[in-house]
TrEMBL record:
Residues 27-169 form the Lactate/malate dehydrogenase N-terminal domain. The gene is LOC108070397. NAD(+) binds at G32, A33, G34, G35, G36, I37, G38, D58, N118, I141, T142, N143, M252. Residues 171-334 form the Lactate/malate dehydrogenase C-terminal domain. Pfam families: Ldh_1_C (PF02866), Ldh_1_N (PF00056). The keyword Mitochondrion does not apply. This is Malate dehydrogenase.
Length: 351
């Protein structure tokens, strides 16, 4: 009897104290999980904490990969979903949907040339999320990030569930590369380098802020110019080196796992988690912009203000804003065209 009373009391205390009920584990769905990024990303996420279900979706058969990953000696389960009609079940009740589905670049291509093929992925995933997990965080790896995120935002908006704090374009690879190249140059561990990378995720829209580098960057203007260019063209460096066999996959999986870990730590209620990402933003004249964000229980908790920049950085921001503005417009136009053409996606709500 005493034992029962004690148990009742404990459960009442738990109910009365919401912080005790704070969630520690989540369902994460990876769309495009069978691909060059999807597979190593799934492995890295299996190796980390905080995921009660890792739902793997792809157009190709996922059973083998899911079974393989389910033998990793970590808690949580792995589920597999294959084919377009299994997208909704895959993301159903997910806390976080990460999208690594879509075509990578071939040598000679620009990222925006992928929109014709990959824009459809954004529309389909945003539609499935609208139906099956409208409160989930949605993070896109798929290129062209600068257009894909505005396209997805448009679909979510039309479906009446858009929350700009929950939609992200993952630009962490730009930060990871900056940390590595700067660490090597300064002969320190990349783990000890911190630098915001703002703007977007293509060419000149990728802007590492050397003026904000910690520790202070010791290189003259010529070095900064050269390293900025290398960071902006690092994706192309990999595309060329892979010579027709795709673009960055392993470093992207590393960067993606870092970003997912930060999102999950935010969801758990940890404070002070800051990452750069490409999101709907009011910091500049561009409707979508990458900048440092504090993450929290509802996605973006707070936009960090843009720092005072060097005059060269200010000029670079002025040059990149029209590009991201144009990219956002193309993404939105793409989504609206798809929605108009598709009778299945809430056509009556189109203005
Ligand atoms: N944000 C970033 O920093 C980076 C983005 N990327 C982008 O990530 C994307 C994926 O790259 P990879 O993994 O190398 O390509 P991949 O071709 O190796 O894999 C893509 C996977 O997506 C699947 N897929 C295609 N359409 C799908 C759909 N509608 N639903 C579910 N799955 C679908 C394919 O079956 C394939 O398994 C590309 O668009 C690439 O440009 C790549 C590197 C960095
Ligand atoms: O360059 C690409 O096409 C893939 C990518 O976004 C990157 O590596 O940054």
């Amino acid at each position: 009897m005493l034992l029962l009373d004690g148990l009742k009391l404990l459960s009442n205390i738990a109910l009365a104290a919401p912080w005790r009920l704070s969630r520690r584990t989540f369902k994460v769905a990876i769309v495009g999980a069978g691909g060059g990024i999807g597979q190593p990303l799934s492995l890295l996420l299996r190796s980390g904490p905080g995921i009660k279900e890792l739902a793997l979706h792809d157009l190709v058969e996922m059973k083998g990969i899911a079974t393989d990953l389910s033998h990793v000696s970590k808690s949580g389960m792995v589920t597999s979903f294959s084919g377009e009609n299994m997208l909704e079940p895959a993301v159903s009740c997910a806390d976080l949907v990460v999208v690594a589905a879509g075509m990578p670049r071939l040598p000679g291509m620009q990222r925006d040339q992928l929109m014709a093929a990959n824009g459809q992925v954004a529309v389909k995933v945003a539609t499935a999320v609208s139906v099956a997990c409208p409160e989930a965080l949605l993070a896109f790896i798929t290129n062209p990030v600068n257009m894909i995120v505005p396209a997805a935002a448009e679909v979510l908006k039309v479906n009446g569930i858009y929350d700009p704090c929950r939609l992200f374009g993952i630009t962490t690879l730009d930060v990871v590369r900056s940390e590595k190249f700067i660490g090597d140059f300064m002969k320190i561990s990349p783990d000890n380098v911190k630098i915001p990378v703002i703007g977007g995720h293509a060419g000149i829209t990728i802007l590492p802020l050397f003026s904000q580098c910690q520790p202070e960057f010791h290189g003259d203007k010529a070095v900064i110019k050269e390293m900025t260019h290398r960071i902006q063209e690092a994706g192309t460096e990999v595309v060329k080196a892979k010579a027709g066999k795709g673009s960055a996959t392993l470093s992207m999986a590393f960067a993606g796992a870092r970003f997912v870990d930060s999102l999950l730590r935010g969801l758990k209620g940890e404070k002070g988690i800051v990452e750069c990402a490409y999101v709907a933003s009011e910091l500049t004249d561009a409707p979508f912009f990458a900048s440092p964000l504090e993450l929290g229980k509802d996605g973006i908790e707070r936009f960090l203000p843009l720092p005072t920049m060097s005059s060269t950085e200010e000029e670079a921001v002025a040059k990149l804003i029209p590009v991201v503005q144009e990219n956002a417009k193309e993404g939105i136009d793409f989504a609206r065209k798809c929605l108009e053409e598709s009778m299945e996606v809430f056509p009556s709500s189109l203005p």
